[in-house]
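Retro notes (design track)

What went well: tokenization of the new backbones is finally stable.
What didn't: we kept losing track of which sequence belonged to which structure.
Fix going forward: every design gets posted as structure first, then sequence, in one message. First example under the new rule, 469 residues:
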């Protein structure tokens, strides 16, 4: 309800601001020595609409969370409007006057007038609508966890509009299962007191598989789910959530069975992988020559990997190992990781355990270098072009890895596999397999074009730093 009302209100505000700007330009132009321009209606007038709606969506202004704090709402409107103005001006300059006929003065006047219409509609009418909804439904916010973090979230919720009733579920509950605890807490209440509208999960006190169990229970009940975790940085969404709850919080947007924007994602994959292959062609040639000159065997390696829904495909890499190397040690270590029995092979400079066979005798000197900087993954851009993979998604497992998955880990295969993802940017080899699975599943529930772009951009410095070992 609030999403649709917000979009309508913003369209009305932009329309009124544009009409006011066109009228003002006719009066202001003579004072600035500009020629009067007759008002014409064409497609370029849609530019402010597109940029405002996109910037407001990216800022989280179409979520319920925007209305829980009026001062923060106002500040977010100003930031998003400024971004929309910058993008609109840049588009008008880059595309050129031959295509975009709206003048820079009209654009400036439109965005100067926009707050005069946006603030009354959003901070007045929409906030009144939200307050009426809160009074009518009296929603309950559940906070699940037992740590200083969960207590901080509960205290913060008590200060925000729309979270008047906060229920905390800790490990002193009736069962050892967090999912069962939530069902018990809700099921033991009268029907009219069951308005569990939102659920906040503290990941610092709950195992990853239990978190995803909670997410499933809550989604089945139509509850808004938020996860507080330091492992989901690129998925945190707008700065609005982090500012609101004063901790890194990710909202679960959807289920893996209801993906969005496939056409946009596939377009990004084709365009991005094609451009990357073209730009990296000198690097590809140099790596191929180095591999060929330093060890006997082929330049490229094709492995059988398991993709979405259990389908297999030929996974391309630069060869980084000696030919006919024994993979049994790697197989044993990976299987131990999946079952949770693996021990870190070393610690990094920050004291974090590294789950990786660091001193693998099968790896060539050139292979060690290209692995450190993730250069061995470049040929997978061809897999992306072919549609086997996406630029962003979980890493596709080897068949013997997938064979060891239990039911909850197998959910990774519901998400299209990719070259990079949350694990490559945030975790790398410093997280356990269950934590990596948690990152992949949360990505599957929060995938979007904007998230994919952020992860692609963040992958470049992560690779250049050389944390791949």
């Amino acid at each position: 309800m609030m999403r649709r009302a917000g979009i309508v209100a913003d369209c009305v505000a932009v329309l009124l601001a544009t009409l006011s700007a066109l009228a003002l330009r006719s009066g202001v132009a003579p004072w600035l020595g500009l020629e009067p321009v007759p008002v014409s209606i064409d497609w370029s007038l849609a530019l402010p609409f597109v940029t405002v709606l996109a910037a407001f969506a990216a800022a989280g202004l179409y979520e319920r969370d925007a209305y829980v704090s009026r001062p923060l709402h106002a500040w977010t409107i100003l930031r998003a409007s400024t971004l929309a103005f910058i993008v609109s001006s840049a588009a008008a300059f880059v595309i050129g006057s031959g295509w975009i006929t709206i003048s820079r003065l009209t654009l400036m006047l439109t965005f100067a007038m926009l707050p005069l219409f946006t603030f009354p509609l959003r901070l007045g009418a929409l906030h009144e609508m939200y307050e009426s909804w809160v009074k009518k439904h009296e929603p309950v916010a559940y906070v699940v966890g037992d740590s200083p973090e969960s207590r901080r979230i509960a205290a913060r919720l008590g200060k925000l509009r729309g979270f008047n009733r906060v229920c905390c579920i800790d490990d002193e509950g009736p069962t050892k299962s967090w999912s069962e605890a939530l069902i018990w807490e809700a099921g033991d209440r009268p029907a009219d007191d069951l308005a569990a509208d939102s659920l906040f999960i503290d990941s610092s006190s709950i195992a990853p598989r239990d978190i995803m169990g909670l997410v499933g229970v809550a989604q089945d009940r139509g509850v808004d789910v938020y996860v507080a975790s330091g492992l989901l940085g690129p998925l945190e969404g707008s700065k609005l959530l982090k500012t609101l709850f004063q901790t890194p919080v990710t909202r679960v947007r959807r289920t893996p069975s209801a993906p969005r924007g496939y056409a946009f994602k596939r377009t990004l994959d084709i365009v991005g992988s094609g451009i990357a292959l073209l730009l990296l062609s000198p690097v590809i040639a140099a790596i191929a020559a180095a591999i060929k000159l330093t060890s006997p065997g082929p330049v490229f390696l094709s492995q059988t990997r398991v993709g979405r829904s259990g389908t297999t495909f030929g996974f391309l890499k630069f060869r980084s190992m000696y030919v006919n190397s024994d993979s049994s040690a790697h197989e044993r270590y990976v299987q131990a990781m999946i079952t949770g029995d693996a021990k870190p092979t070393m610690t990094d400079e920050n004291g974090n355990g590294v789950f990786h066979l660091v001193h693998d005798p099968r790896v060539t000197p050139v292979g060690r270098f290209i692995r450190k900087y993730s250069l061995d993954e470049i040929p997978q851009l061809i897999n992306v072009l072919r549609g086997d993979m996406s630029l962003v998604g979980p890493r596709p497992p080897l068949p013997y890895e997938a064979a060891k998955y239990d039911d909850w880990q197998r959910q990774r295969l519901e998400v299209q596999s990719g070259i990079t993802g949350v694990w490559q940017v945030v975790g790398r080899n410093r997280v356990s397999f269950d934590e990596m699975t948690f990152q992949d599943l949360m990505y599957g529930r929060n995938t979007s074009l904007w998230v994919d772009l952020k992860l692609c951009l963040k992958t470049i410095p992560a690779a250049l730093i050389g944390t791949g070992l």
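Added context from the reviewer: Residues 188-195 have pLDDT under 50 and may be disordered.
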